[in-house]
Structure formats: C-alpha cells, structure tokens
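step 4 of 6: structure.
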Amino acid sequence: MSENQNTSNCRISRNVLIKAPGLLPMLYTPREIAEDLDVPETTLRDWLNHGAPHSRDESNHIWIDGKQFAAWVDNQRNARKKPTYQLQAGEGFCMHCNTIVTIQNGEIHPVKGHLSHLKGKCPICGGIVNRGIWNAGSSELPQG
Amino acid sequence: MLDRQNYLKVKLFLKFSRDVRGRSSVQISNDFEHLKALLIWAGSQPFGSVPTINTSLPDFLFQKGENGLDQAELQNILNTNQSFFLWVKAMFPVEFQNVRLNWIMKISAIMEGKEVII
C-alpha cells in the first residue's frame, strides 16, 4: 500500500464538515465515502489528488480510512481559518497602510456606556486611526 | 477496523428499506445512524458470529446511553437493529444460521426489562 503525500488546501462544504465525523473506523472505497458524504465521486477524487489520506493495495485499488479522512477534513477547516490577532492596548488598524500600528497622540472619547472611541495618528502614514474600545482606561493610551 | 462485509450488509438493508419498504431519505438516514452503533459494537467480528460477543448489544448501548442517549432513542436503535437482523437472517440463512431467532427477539426485549429495573 502506498500513501499520497501531495498536500494543499481544499474547499470543503459545510455538509461534508458535518457528516465527516460520522465516518466509521474502516476502509472505504471512494464511491462509498462519496455516497456517505453526499458529494460527487469526482470531487472526492479531486480531494485525493490534493492530499486526502488514502492508500492503494497491490491491485492499485484506492482505500480510504474513515477516521483518517475525517481528521483530514477537520484539518482543512482549521487551515482555512484566518489567523486572529488580539489588538494590544494602544494599537489600532490603519486602513491606509493595511497593517496594525501603535496609535500616536491618541485621545479617548466616551461613546455610550462602557464603549469609547480611541482616535489617533498612524506613525507610518500620519493618517487618522480609529478604534472602538470597551472599558477604556489609561492603559489604552500609547506611551508617548 | 470494522468488518467491511458488515458495512455492505447494512448498506444492502438500507437500499432494501428505501426501494421495497418505501422509507424516506430521512428515515434511511436515521436507520443508518442506528445501525452504526451495531457496526461499532460488532467491530471486526462478522455479524454471523455476534451472539458470541461477551457484551450484549443492549448493554453496549446502555453504557453509551449513560453518556447522553435517552431511553426512547435507545429503544429506537434496538428496534432498528432487530429489524435488520430479522431481514439479514431471511436474506442470508446459511451465513446467519448461528444467529437464533430468540436471540434476535431478545435484542429489544432486554431493553424493556432494563426500563423496569430503572
């Protein structure tokens, strides 16, 4: 048996994401797994070409382990998630530079309740940077 | 690894349910979920030799039931499994000669007994 090592991200439908954890710990043929996940067999074979785990026997027949395939689907979902970054105190996103910057000359204006508006300048382009902040304190203001 | 022949028999039963009994796709989907418990319980053993498994199917499901399955759902699963065994014994009489009819009828009857004990 041989494994395919080619890996890349695939677009997985929501229906497959829901159904994949229900796959059983056994070897499936591509047709069976396509039926169980309710996707066309051609789509499944495309995923196999893009690195979905499978093996071939001595007759060159493709076999897919249900649990390994479910884990691969889960990895694909996680791989497509954009990395998140929590803005630190005094930081904002400059729409002009399209990057996170430390706001200069920041001023906090209360909006309503716990919500405040931090307004300052971008150190790179000098443009105005705005940020909404919750429970604003003096720590939200950048040093300098 | 589960026995592939068991899986193929389950698929055949679902096809029979859809084509002959006229069960809807939702019912077929539910039946498949119920029969997955049977497949996991049997493991690598062929269905023809499942009466020799130490833990009975109702006991296996009852242990799973303590982790979230309610009593009505358990009973539905057992009823589906019972009708599957009745069908498979009729379709493959030689292969399933060791699976006695009284064992099949006990599948859901034991569960009813457990309800009384609880």
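step 5 of 6: annotate
 - The mean pLDDT of chain B is 85.
 - Chain B touches chain A at residues 1-4, 7, 11, 33, 36, 39-40 (CB under 8 Å).
step 6 of 6: archive
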